[in-house]
Amino acid sequence: MSGTYLGMPAFPKAAAVSTRDTRLRANLTRATHTIRDKRAAAVAELSDWAQLRQAGKEIKDRTLLRLDHYLLQAEAAVTAAGGTVHWAEDAAEANRIVADLVRATGEREVVKVKSMATQEIGLNEALAAEGITAYETDLAELIVQLGDDLPSHILVPAIHRNRTEIRDIFREAMGRWGRPAPEGLTDRPADLAEAARLHLREKFLRAKVAVSGANFLVAETGSLVVVESEGNGRMCLTLPETLISVVGIEKVVPTWRDLEVFLQLLPRSSTAERMNPYTSIWTGTTEGDGPRDFHLVLLDNGRTDTLADEIGRQALRCIRCSACLNVCPVYERAGGHAYGSPYPGPIGAILTPQLRGIQTELDASLPYASSLCGACYQVCPVAIDIPEVLVHLRERVAAQGHGHRAERAAVRAATWLLDHPAAYSAVTRAAVRTRRLHPHRLPLPGPVGAWSDSRDLPELPDQTFRDWWKQRDRAQGHDGPEGHDRPEGHDRTEGGDQR
Fold first, then answer.
1. d(Cα 237, Cα 361) in Å, to the nearest integer?
2. In the predicted structure, residue 378 carries a pLDDT above the cut 50
3. Among residues 362, 252, 268, which one has the least CA distance to residue 322?
4. Could you give the CA distance from residue 70 to residue 77 in angstroms, rounded to a whole number?
5. What span, in angstroms and rounded, lies between the C-alpha atoms of 104 and 98?
6. How far is CA 197 from CA 180, 232, 277, 375, in A?
7. Residue 125 phi/psi, 5° resolution?
8. Given a cut of 70, is residue 15 above it in pLDDT?
9. CA nearest 305: which of 340, 375, 355?
């Protein structure tokens, strides 16, 4: 992945700051609860939602098992339709390809459709380094760009902003990027939308080059699909002379029939709509209709490594609906920026460490950014078992020595103790005998203290399990261990199995 977010603190440190931001928490709570309630109502309309969800899961799994085949099929179909396919192993290669394509047109600006893949690779920053300006045209992405901010949600990147903050950003920054905000701009949603519409219109009409991602790539025809709600995507995909689409290799689906399933799952899970207002589908180039040149950049950037992990590859099913974010208690309190990645929330906690690796403190911390409550799995439209992958990644983090020193020391001590029964028995007896002297909480310093401050120690019983068991044996008259498992009245010498 791109280095755009590198240098940000690990999740616990970032979350410690963001959870104290009362305005942020209020914005997130209001927005996520509204979206989740609407999604629940939209899903409840379908009596076969569970079957539809299972179909989406199976299509994705089947596709991932033969991903090489479908990617080559898609490449052949796009080429036959007049497009050009480029393969990018990582973010640097993808950025270089796009920058070279833009420079070849002689242009120095592009308009962009909202794209997680281009955020992932840091394309805007890479283009800026080459003297090319990228203009975001999605309303929420525009707010983030004008505010010199980072996105904090997959579907609604500016979810952490309220409308008063947005008004102030428009008033202060729009003039530096193009048409200024209207005089006397209010924070009414209709006024804010109109200001954005006027600001962007000149860019749509002037731009010769557009950059997009894609929600899906249909292998059998080489068709790309973008779903959106504002119409900015349609403008970017049809008006410019050159269109460059950066698409993760996992976005491929085999057939149009498979696409039908996802065009039902995605809108209900993301925007709580039965169908997206704008579903744009294009196949290569057509004389006199749309862009004259079409380039498809197929992005790996860690996806092949993720595919090799039998448990972790579930993350590649993701269709970027953001339903998991809207039900996650950790995301609601910490916000998207705490994850240090374009992919926040539960899906980011399993996707980012696989795409970027777990070498940094930030990436190693992400699998722990969860309570493992399972709400994310319940709402995922393609049944990604996010808690399972989180636990799997925690094992990898621990195996590579990224765990806390105190935690590793405690695990080593417990391992030794459990391997030595006599010592274990002595320790448990001593703990029981001194139970009245134990504090309610461990007075530990530093990060360990932060853990113990919110957890009471369990109350110990008045005897150990082994002592209780021996006392039970004496009370029941058992002479040896064989009697423990023998049902009352059973005679091992009569009837029953003699093996």
1. 39
2. yes
3. 268
4. 10
5. 10
6. 12, 9, 17, 37
7. -70, -40
8. yes
9. 355
Per residue in 294-341, pLDDT (tens digit) is 999 999 999 999 999 999 999 999 999 999 999 999 999 999 999 999
Q: How confident is the model at residue 489 (pLDDT cuts 50, 70, 90)?
A: very low
**Number of CB atoms found within 10 A of residue 150's CB:** 18
Phi and psi dihedrals of 433, rounded to 5? -70, -25
pTM of the full predicted structure?
Answer: 0.84
pLDDT one-digit tens code per residue, 194-221:
999 999 999 999 999 999 999 999 999 9
Distance CA 203, CA 148 (A): 19
Query: How many Cβ atoms sit within 10 Å of the Cβ of residue 460?
Result: 15
CA 72 to centroid of chain Cα atoms: 27
- Residue 344 identity: P
Confidence of residue 408 (pLDDT cuts 50, 70, 90): confident
Give per-residue pLDDT as tens, 323-332: 999 999 999 9
Strand partners, 246: 297
Residue carrying structure tokens 């036959």: 80
